[in-house]
């Protein structure tokens, strides 16, 4: 189980997660960045089965993910990933619905839950076993690191240390959004 938290600020998006890997009733603290990974153009947070998370990292690292601008793009990405899993794993029963995800690209944040429930996030959210505690802390104004630490205190399936990733929000290209006036010529 996991806690993964994301919060958008005017100039950056901050993500954080705990470091506990849980297998049935056993826990292990891991230094390996599994739950939250910065893959360059995209940051992915994943709560659920490690096998799904690692396959997703491999899938993304083999591609230049440029088209994630809306829910349709995310849906197509998920369908392509699931097809890739079927084509590249023997006898696999892996499904996207085994995990919950946070995707961050540029100034956009999406969550994916239950396989195909895709939602764009405006300000903040959390996924994983401690999400309810995290949402309360975020609502009360805590930052991402404080939020993850609080969840680690009270959720059996989450432990410190906390991992933080900050992604600057790219400046908007003013030339591309500038409207031009037609002269009728």
**Secondary-structure arrangement, i.e. CATH architecture:** 4-Layer Sandwich
**Treating each run of at least 4 consecutive H or I residues as one helix, how many helices?**
5
Q: How many structural domains does the protein architecture include? A: 1
Straight-line distance between termini: 63 Å
- Nearest-integer average pLDDT: 85
- What does the overall shape look like? globular
Radius of gyration: 18 Å
Low-pLDDT stretches: 174-185
Give the strand order, joined by hyphens, for the main sheet. 5-6-7-8-9
Order of helices and strands: EEEEEEHHEEEEHHEH
Strand tally: 11
Largest sheet entry:
5 strands, antiparallel
Q: What is the top-level CATH class?
A: Alpha Beta
What is the subunit arrangement here? single chain
Structural class estimated from helices and strands: alpha+beta
Residue share in β-strands = 25-35%
CATH topology term: Glutamine Phosphoribosylpyrophosphate, subunit 1, domain 1
Q: How would you name the CATH homologous superfamily?
A: Aminohydrolase, N-terminal nucleophile (Ntn) domain
Fraction of residues in H or I helices: 25-40%
